[in-house]
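pls ignore typos typing on phone
magnesium ion + seq
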Amino acid sequence: SIPVPKPSATRYIAVANQKGGVGKTSTTVNLAAALAQGGAHVLVIDMDPQGNASTALGAPHDSGQSSVYDVLEGRSTIQDTKVPCPDFETLQIVPSSINLSGAELEVADLAKRTELLHNAVEAFMRDTNEQFDYVLVDCPPSLGLLVINAMCAVTEVLVPIQAEYYALEGLGQLINTIELVQEHYNPILLVSTMVVTMFDRRTLLSREVYDEVKKHYPNIVLDTTIPRTVKISEAPSFGKSVIAYDPRGIGAVAYVEAALEIARRSPSVLTAIAQKRRKH
Ligand code: ADP
Ligand code: MG
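k done
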C-alpha cells in the first residue's frame, strides 16, 4: 500500500450534499479506509441516522450501543463511543443511531445547538493521547441541524457530485448554507474538495458533468473520478470498505488515488483556495 503524506495538523472534513444517493457515505468510508491504509490516523463520525457509514466500516450500531446521538446530547463522549474498524488499525468510528433521526437536540439551548459536535470534538482532542491526521464527518442528506453541526465542527467541506443529469442542481443551495455557516458560526470553513462519483467512462454524460463541474470549480474538483462499479455498492453488505473488500479493483484504486490527491493538497492548495475565496 502507498503511504499518504501526513498533514501538519489534523484536517477536519465534512462530506456533505443535501441530495441523497450521490456517494457521500461511500466517499467518506472509502477515503477514510484509503487514508488509514496509507498510515494516516483517521476518525470517522457518522452523523446520518441511517448509519450506513457505521455499517460499511463494520461498526456495531444497534440500540444498545452508545452513538453520536449520546455524544451530542451530552450523555457520552467521543472517547467512550468510538469503536475500532476491524480492517484498519488506525481507523476508528463514532457510530450513528437511528435515534438521531428524531433528534431535535433539545437538551441545548437554541444558541448552542449548532455547536454540539464542535464542542464534543474539541473536548475529545484536548483529552485524548491519540494524534489524528483526519476527522471525516459523514452527513445526512439534508441541510438541517445535524449538517450545520457537522459544518461547525470542521474546516473543510468535501462535496461528492454524482455524474448524472442535474448534477449541479441544488449545489447553489448547498453553497448558500455553507456561506451562512461561514458568516454566523465558522469563518474558516472552506469548500476544499469536490469529487465526481459514479463516473461511467462509456458515457459522454459523465465526461460532460465532469467538465461542467471543473469549469465552475477549477481548483476544487479532484482530477480523480470515482468509477461506477458494483464492488463499491456490494462492499457495505459485508461490513467492509471497498479498500478491504476488493483492494485491487478499480473502485479501491480510485479511492486510493483520491485520498492521495486530497493528502497532497495540504496545506498549500488549501491556502490558495482560501485566498481565492477571500478575493470574491
Ligand atoms: P449518499 O451517502 O450520498 O446517500 P451512498 O454513498 O450511500 O450515497 O451511495 C448511494 C448508493 O449508490 C449506494 O447504494 C451505494 O452503494 C451506491 N454507490 C455509491 N458510489 C458508487 C459507485 N462509485 N459505484 C456504484 N455504486 C455506488
Ligand atoms: Mg449516506
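The domain at 11-274 is CATH 3.40.50.300 (Rossmann fold). Residues 73 and 80 are 14 Å apart (CA to CA). more later
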